[in-house]
């Protein structure tokens, strides 16, 4: 196996350049110099999908197996004692991962209706169960077990029919894989798991499904040198079938977060306090407690629509992408409460999307007016997004520098609004009655401002 990867890497280094015109070498200085494909910054909003065997117990968290067997959390132990017979193992859940109601076109319709431009599906979480027929997973996969279908391929086909970008989440490590645990026991001086499992699966995913994005995870216990991350990324950027379009995150080994890779995740639900100097993404879940589906979730534990929109606007104003997660049920359904949130986002974006898609951070990202205002921009157009109703007819914006050619409109309302410049800078605008918005957010479009 080592010889195979050595030959592959040698070919990677010696063959013709990618269409970016650069050959990337397997070191961070070279890999980090790769320009991020433009599509990713333009799309702004994506859907994250956490789905796997953990969707069968659907209790507590997608970390169910770990919390039950390692962390020994009492609530997980009690759940098993009350509901399953003695000797029941986690692998016994897999046959009940039926996905019998999974309709990839229905999912894709919901995701498209949300206004999302990319979708990231878990191909494999830390439990090691693969949502495709991985040749290195024995029968711990969705083709030989549970659904008996290629979930990664089926959803990918439906997503691409709607011209959305398709990404795959992949966990490098597996909690209880004996080969990984053997490498861990050696202090990661051996790499048998990487050579026999982690890397073959990544190469297989790329060659088979040609994802536009790879969302790496489960890397933090070992350095990138153990994972052979730089070798894989050099192949991905130089010679893979997606070399010119693929986007990657920063989870490629201990110490890589917010430092190496494509765009930065930094940490789950990362929320910077100021404009970062590198493209970033916030992954957030509608269910504030879990990424996977929970049968015991409560409405009070879910993000409501205004909270989601405020979070998205904040992220985009600071130059980030917003990846919003939903966890489907084991039988393949998107819960109605999740669908309601997604369709609500889409309804808001139909009116206000031009203030989100393909925008850039403005010279000022926010101001505290009567209500919070977040700014985005496109050339000489600035968008001021109000994240609550000012409840008044006149509204001051102190930051924009207007000219005689400035035109102010409310997105969704075709008539220009009356406005006047303030004495030093900014303007006062006469607002119409704001239309009802379940999202509690409205956008003023300012054309021809400095």
Automatic annotation (TrEMBL):
The record marks 283 as: May be important for catalysis. This is Alpha-L-fucosidase. SUPFAM superfamilies: (Trans)glycosidases. The gene is LOC107696223. It is found in: Lysosome. One of its GO terms (molecular function) is alpha-L-fucosidase activity. It comes from the Eukaryota. Residues 1-21 form the signal peptide. Its EC number is 3.2.1.51. One of its GO terms (biological process) is fucose metabolic process. Homotetramer. Belongs to the glycosyl hydrolase 29 family.
């Amino acid at each position: 196996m080592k010889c195979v990867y050595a030959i592959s890497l040698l070919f990677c280094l010696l063959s013709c350049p990618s269409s970016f015109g650069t050959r990337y070498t397997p070191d961070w200085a070279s890999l980090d110099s790769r320009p991020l494909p433009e599509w990713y910054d333009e799309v702004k909003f994506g859907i994250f999908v956490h789905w796997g065997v953990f969707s069968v117990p659907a209790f507590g968290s997608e970390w169910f197996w770990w919390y039950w067997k390692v962390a020994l959390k009492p609530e997980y132990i009690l759940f098993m004692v009350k509901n399953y017979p003695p000797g029941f193992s986690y692998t016994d859940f897999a046959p009940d991962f039926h996905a019998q109601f999974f309709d990839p076109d229905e999912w894709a319709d919901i995701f498209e209706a949300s206004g999302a431009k990319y979708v990231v599906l878990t191909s494999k979480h830390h439990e090691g169960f693969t949502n495709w027929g991985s040749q290195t997973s024995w029968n711990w996969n969705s083709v030989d077990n549970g659904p008996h279908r290629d979930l990664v391929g089926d959803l990918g086909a439906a997503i691409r029919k709607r011209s959305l970008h398709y990404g795959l989440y992949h966990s490098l490590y597996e909690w209880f894989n004996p080969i990984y645990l053997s490498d861990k026991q050696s202090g990661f001086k051996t790499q048998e798991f990487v050579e026999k499992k982690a890397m073959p699966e990544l190469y297989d995913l790329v060659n088979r499904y040609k994802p536009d994005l790879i969302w790496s995870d489960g890397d933090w216990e070992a350095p990138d040198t153990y994972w052979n991350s730089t070798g894989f990324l050099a192949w991905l950027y130089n010679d893979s079938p997606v070399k010119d379009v693929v986007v990657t995150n920063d989870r490629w080994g201990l110490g890589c977060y917010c430092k190496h890779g494509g765009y930065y995740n930094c940490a789950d639900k990362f929320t910077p306090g100021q404009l970062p100097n590198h493209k970033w993404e916030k992954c957030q879940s509608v269910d504030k407690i879990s990424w996977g589906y929970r049968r015991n979730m409560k409405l009070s534990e879910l993000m409501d629509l205004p909270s989601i929109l405020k979070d998205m606007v904040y992220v985009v104003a600071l130059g980030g992408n917003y990846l919003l997660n939903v966890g489907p049920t084991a039988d393949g359904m998107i819960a109605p409460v999740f669908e309601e949130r997604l369709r609500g986002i889409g309804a808001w974006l139909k009116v206000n999307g031009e203030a989100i898609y393909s925008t850039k951070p403005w010279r000022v990202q926010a101001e505290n007016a009567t209500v919070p205002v977040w700014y985005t921009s496109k050339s000489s157009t600035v968008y001021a997004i109000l994240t609550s109703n000012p409840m008044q007819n006149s509204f001051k914006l102190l930051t924009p520098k207007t000219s005689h050619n400035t035109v102010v409109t409310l997105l969704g309302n075709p008539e220009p609004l009356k406005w006047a410049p303030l004495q030093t800078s900014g303007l006062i605008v006469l607002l119409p009655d704001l239309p009802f918005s379940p999202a509690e957010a409205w956008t003023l479009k300012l054309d021809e401002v400095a």
